[in-house]
Amino acid sequence: MKYYFLVFLFVIISCTNRNNENVNIFQKSNQKVIVIQPLGSFKAEEAKKVFVEIKTINPNVVLRSNISFPENSFYKPRNRYRADSIIKKLKNTIGEDSVIVGLSHSDISTTKNTIKDWGVMGLGYCPGKACVVSDFRLHVKNKNQQFYKLVLHELGHTAGLPHCAVKTCLMRDAEGGNPLDEEKDFCNNCKSFLKGKGWRLL
């Protein structure tokens, strides 16, 4: 009788471990390699901070050396760079299993409705393989914290998340302003979606 009990217990433990392994395999298979690409004169120490923070949600992170902005991305009339041109270029520098985020100190812009050149803090394909963020429009006081929230926001778009109506969610639409200090975390719905993509979120 004792022998059968031990066999039964072993089977239960084996099944539990196998289920856990399957969950881990599922999460790893969904995780993309996140490539961090500093642009222009973006400071190395600030890029490293982003690298360290991103590793907490995805250990598969690569930090590249600085590269120049794409030649066709500079918009001379406003002395800034076109975000749409940047991500179009960046997406062609990575593999299918990766997503890339460009980091910029310079101002960036895109076309919005009838406005040809609209200044933005970030832009990303939704879903897609590339996004870019800029700290040019961020508050000096909480710049590092705001910048990381911005990175997560744009990476959220690349994973397929649209803007969120929850005011404290990191996927909130900035609507031309800077509400980053009001944003605390991904809301439950957005967090659940990203966990399904392999993100390691609490």
What is the terminal separation in angstroms? 43 Å
- Radius of gyration from the alpha-carbon trace, in angstroms: 20 Å
Instruction: State the order of secondary-structure elements, H for helix, E for strand.
Output: HEHEEEHEEEEEHH
The strand count comes to 9
Let me know the largest β-sheet: 5 strands, mixed
From the coordinates shown, what is the CATH architecture of the domain at 33-162?
A: 3-Layer(aba) Sandwich
What is the CATH class designation of the domain at 33-162? Alpha Beta
Overall shape: it is: globular
Organism: Flavobacterium chilense
GO molecular function: metal ion binding; metallopeptidase activity
GO biological process, one term: proteolysis
Cofactor: Zn(2+)
3D architecture notes:
The longest helix is centred in the first third of the chain and has 29 residues. Helix content is 37%, strand content 20%. The strands form two sheets. Strands 2-1-5-9-8 form a five-stranded mixed β-sheet, sandwiched between helices. The chain has a four-stranded mixed β-sheet with strand order 3-4-6-7. With 202 residues, it is an alpha/beta fold. It has a domain of 130 residues: Collagenase (Catalytic Domain). It is globular, with a radius of gyration of 20 Å. Strand 3 and strand 4 form a beta hairpin. The N terminus is likely disordered.
Quick structural overview:
Helices cover 37% and strands 20% of the residues. With 202 residues, the protein is of the alpha/beta class. A 5-stranded mixed beta sheet has the order 2-1-5-9-8, with helices on both faces.
